[in-house]
Amino acid sequence: MVSSYPLPEGFSDFDVFSLGSCLLVEGLLGFFLNAVTVVAFLKMRELRTPSNFLVFSLALADMGISMNATIAAFSSFLRYWPYGSDGCQTHGFQGFVTALASIHFVAAIAWDRYHQYCTRTKLQWSSAITLAVFIWLFCAFWSAMPLIGWGEYDYEPLRTCCTLDYSKGDRNYVSYLIPMAIFNMVIQVFVVMSSYQSIAEKFKKTGNPRFNPSTPLKAMLLCWGPYGILAFYAAVENANLVSPKLRMMAPILAKTCPTINVFLYALGNENYRGGIWQFLTGEKIEAPQIENKSK
């Protein structure tokens, strides 16, 4: 069925099938879990709070990442990209905007949790909606730049999915990468790290930890750290010197974030988990009234 299409350089039949299978599992599992999170928020009135709206928005972004992974999986089984150059640009833009939005919403949830636990300030609907709209517009701006020439979208090493092209490492790439990374990764990592450090200190004083404050940052770095390292390595060295298989590990790890985020921010939230359970089974679980209380 696929024998007429040559294998991507550096990959065997087994490699292509294995990576495609990973993408398919990540895509379908992430989409299903986040779809349940989204529908539960829309259906269960008890879940519709400003803080949970940020979790809902994160789930929407992660559904987009999962859709991107599923398309890449389908192309991997075909062993070629069937949607042409325009499809590659669309796939790259869609994947980039949802990935950036996911990172931003993780930081927004950390900021909200800091205020809940450390300043006892509740998020208002006006602030939550304004923040969500700003995040989507801001991410769309940075994701649209490669479409008009600042940066570029091209194929991943497997040549069955598209993302920001780091293979050239030229001045155009570097001039885009640095400000994009500062505004869409470095600041967000700082917000997550500082917020959960403050929460950890608060938990030490009260002696009543609600969750492990180090887990969100570790999960964020696990999913997006390899992509960041590869992107900055490409700014100083020829990224093509890194084996194609190793370079494909970055998108594979990144596309685990939709599933990980569900367990951290939806199922790990007692209020949200209870709402999902009630939505799926009709049985109500009495949960504490503190929002975003996680294991």
UniProtKB/TrEMBL annotation:
Query: Can you say where in the cell this protein is located?
Result: Membrane
The regions listed as transmembrane in this protein's record are 16-42, 54-81, 93-111, 123-145, 173-196, 217-236, 248-267
According to its record, how does it sit in the membrane?
A: Multi-pass membrane protein
| Any one GO molecular function term | G protein-coupled receptor activity
One cellular component term (GO) for this entry is: membrane
Q: Which domain of life is it from?
A: Eukaryota
One Pfam annotation reads: 7tm_1
Tell me, in a sentence or two, what this protein's role is: Receptor for all-trans- and 11-cis-retinal. Binds preferentially to the former and may catalyze the isomerization of the chromophore by a retinochrome-like mechanism.
- CDD domains from the UniProt entry: 7tmA_Retinal_GPR
This protein is called what?
A: RPE-retinal G protein-coupled receptor
Major localization class: membrane
Q: What GO terms in the biological process aspect are recorded for it? A: phototransduction; visual perception
Does Nucleotide-binding appear among the keywords?
no
Keywords of this entry: Chromophore, Disulfide bond, G-protein coupled receptor, Membrane, Photoreceptor protein, Receptor, Retinal protein, Sensory transduction, Transducer, Transmembrane, Transmembrane helix, Vision
Q: Does the keyword Membrane apply?
A: yes
Residue limits of the G-protein coupled receptors family 1 profile domain?
Answer: 33-265
Species the sequence originates in: Takifugu flavidus (sansaifugu)
